[in-house]
Design brief:
Rossmann fold; single chain; alpha/beta; eight-stranded mixed β-sheet
Amino acid sequence: MTSLLAEPAPGLLHAAPVPADGHTMGPDSLLRYLTIKVHHLIQERDWDSIRVIGGYDRAAVISRHEKTGKLFNIERPTAQVHGNDLVIKAFPGADYVQHYALIIATYLAMTDRPAGQVTYQPPGPDECRTVLDGLDLSLNLDGDLVIVGWSLQYLAPEAGVWTRGPGYAWQRTEIAGHRVVYLGFLHSIWGDVAGQVVDRLAALGARDVVYVGKVGALSPGIEPNTWLATGNTSLVGGALVSWDDFFGDFATAQEGVHCGLHATSPSILLENRDWLAKHAAYDFVDPEIGPMGAAARQAGIRFGYLHVISNNLARRYPADLSNERHVDVLRRRAVLIDRIRAIITGRLTGRPPHTLQGIR
């Protein structure tokens, strides 16, 4: 019987393992990071082939390594078994499908298992757009500020009620007469997906979008989890893109906020030492900020980001992307989340936030 995955597929690409020795995380941290991410069915046995495609399918086999203890960004790609072949379904974005395929291939290579059978099929933008068309906040977003991203359960009012939709939840409040919507996703909005989210929010009537998340620093002197990052320009697809910044000069003027140039990378796996050398003129990296800023510019709305600097590509620090649940990391980030909340509130009220105790 012919394998389902032996059939030709349009746009199918091979996922080559990333050499661990040249990666900015170093082999030990990189393997810890990969082990956290890889679906348990891949860790438990070998497969004749593994194909990563775009698809949001919670009826498939859910990974036992999905995150716990938080409300959002908890879902990982799911799996479908076809005999000795495995199909991995990642939320349909070209960057995320590539990223997860590289995760699998590199994990297999680093654990001395065959990695040549990993392929991926990047979805087109219409596939992502079709899924995000289900994003309907059931309210008029005319003029609203929408805050998207990470740690929203700590930024939103504690007594607020989350209204749930397919793969997302939102709640609404008012700050100094400004209507604010907090929007969180259960799945990852990685890379180009985040730009599509901004497109959708603009279509629903949002005037401002703020993204709260994490970036990597490209300068060796910035210790992770001690600074916030902001800016209004990103390198996207080889070109600089600037946008109308929601924060203006307000965030930059606050203590503990570093303003700089951002570089867009579709996958952490591609951020090796050669990549770092080519981007020495930049300050931060992540997959989402650039596509979101570009989408906001195209839609004619304002966009801003205020991120925790979570890791450093240019120098090894104890904290990196492989140990984010460490108690000291969580403690430091709790202080930074308080700062983010205060800065957003200050921006809306027109008053600078009180100086907060530094991170030690």
